[in-house]
Amino acid sequence: MVLGVGAHLRYKAKELALSEDVSVSYPFDCCLSQPCDLIPYQEFSKWFLPPFYSLIFLLGLGGNLMVIAILLLDRAPLLGTDIFVFNLAIADILLVVTLPFWAIQAMHGWVFKDFLCKVLGSMLKINFYASALFLICISFERYLSIVYVIRMYNRNKRFIIYTALLVWFVCFLMTVPDFVYLTAEFDSRLNGTSCGLVFPQHRTKMWKIALIIINQVVAFLLPLVAMIYCYFHIILTLLHSKGFRKHRALKVILAVVVAFFLCWSPYHLVQFISTLLQLHLLEKDCQWEDNLDIADIVTTSLGFFHCCLNPLLYAFVGLKFRNKLLMVLRRFGCINQKFWNMHFRASSQSRDSSWSESTDCSNTIF
């Protein structure tokens, strides 16, 4: 992975994390004579990352492929939030398909080519940003469609496609430094080759702090603020409206915000502490840094687990998506007519217009 996104490449950048007046290339503790031991980090990553990344890979790939399949097999055109959910699923898939490579690195070192290090590291980072930015797009689309009753994306499909393309382009630009500085090289301290960020020695601290800040702002603060603002106003609108099942809508909205916060806030807290260490605002200590490295591994993995939750939060909990899923299954003969009739009678009692119970209520506001 890349600096500020994955724990098991963090040590590579740590090797150059010295003050600019020190011309050596290995990590220091409080004294300049002894480097910190990387064995605790290495041993923990060997037994923790492979099984956990394998689990995220299987769940994330299966769930997001299901979302894409239902969207493409459904006869209705993609409109509004559907397009953003489609792009979110693509971003999550492209992120999780890189995880087996990092799991292999945790066990055996980087056994692939240097170019593949750059490609996979950059691909992970692009989709790391894309997942966060598409959450912002989904939040604002729901905000406009419910609070202001503006279905602008449905009326202008070209606009939403351009928005999605802009998101991908911005993510690509923000990943250029990763592609430039990602390198696979032999690490004598770990006795193996590793793929990580290696910056010019005189600019190491500047690049590390800059990338951590960008990660925290773009991938956490902006989505969190956007979701809180949009869903707060959506809740107020729903509370003042009538004729829908409010409690279900509010539960889904709460689940979206809480899941994002619980999955990503621990990771960004660890990155914030790492920034304080780089700025020498906290005293460096090998035991402290060992614990921070292990916390980085755990919190990064927890953040990636959010890719598995996205299909549940933005698709499967929605009545409309369940109807789409059943329609596809019915077309392929996977469910019988009796079950379909029972479900249709139950679902016809409520009207839905988007991908969650929160937007299922939007028709009552028109």
Q: Care to describe what's here?
A:
With 366 residues, this protein is mostly helical. Helices cover 70% and strands 3% of the residues. It is built from 14 helices and two strands, in the order H-H-H-H-H-H-H-H-E-E-H-H-H-H-H-H. It has helices spanning 10-14, 39-73, 81-96, 99-108, 114-146, 152-155, 157-174, 176-181, 204-239, 246-278, 286-316, 319-331, 337-347, 357-360, and strands at 182-187, 192-197. The longest helix has 36 residues, at 204-239. The termini are far apart. InterPro entries: CCR1-9-like (IPR050119), Chemokine_CXCR3 (IPR004070), Chemokine_rcpt (IPR000355), GPCR_Rhodpsn (IPR000276), GPCR_Rhodpsn_7TM (IPR017452). It is found in: Cell membrane. It is a multi-pass membrane protein.
Amount of beta strand:
under 5%
**Strand order across the largest sheet:** 1-2
Percentage of helical residues?
55-70%
Number of strands: 2
Which structural class fits the helix and strand makeup? mainly alpha
Element string (H = helix, E = strand) = HHHHHHHHEEHHHHHH
- How many alpha or pi helices? 14
Rg over CA atoms: 23 Å
Mean pLDDT: 77
Summarize the biggest pleated sheet.
Answer: 2 strands, antiparallel
General shape? globular
- Cα distance, first to last residue? 46 Å
Q: Identify low-pLDDT runs.
A: 1-33, 349-366
